[in-house]
Amino acid sequence: MLKGHRDLKVYQLACKLAMEIFHLTKQFPREKLYSLTDQIRRSSHSVAANVAEGFRKRRYPNHFISKLTDCDAEATETQVWIDFVFDCGYMSEENRDRLTSGYEQVGKMLGGMMADPTKFASA
How many C-beta atoms lie closer than 10 Å to residue 73's C-beta? Predict the structure, then answer.
């Protein structure tokens, strides 16, 4: 039984990915602090934050779906930043592929939650 948002696999994965990004971005050039570093950190953190916010609104299916849609948008934005970071040469292909795959998994999980929001209403 789910006791809170921390029990959700999608939340756990989103946090793990955000922390990976945080640690990887510590190595970015100082001049990219705001343009790339801040943007990718913000969007990656927003994925987990929106899952948590959405979980608190789960009794209201339309609001729940809206928050999960925001979460999916942030995950997609993070993938775009990952592409930019890789293209700039600040991330290895291995890291790019692993992170991209992780965010694709997050998207699939969110899609499943949006397809059946009532499953989480009583959690």
Answer: 15
Could you say which DSSP state residue 119 is in?
G
Give the residue from 28, 52, 50 showing the smallest Cα distance to 40.
28
Contacts of 96 (CB under 8 A, 6+ apart): 82, 83, 85, 86
pTM of the model: 0.92
CB 51 within 8 A of CB 65: no
Q: Give the tens place of pLDDT for each residue, 51-92.
A: 999 999 999 999 999 999 999 999 999 999 999 999 999 999
Q: Exposed/middle/buried for 66, CB within 10 Å: 0-12, 13-18, 19+?
A: middle
Distance CA 102, CA 86 (A): 16
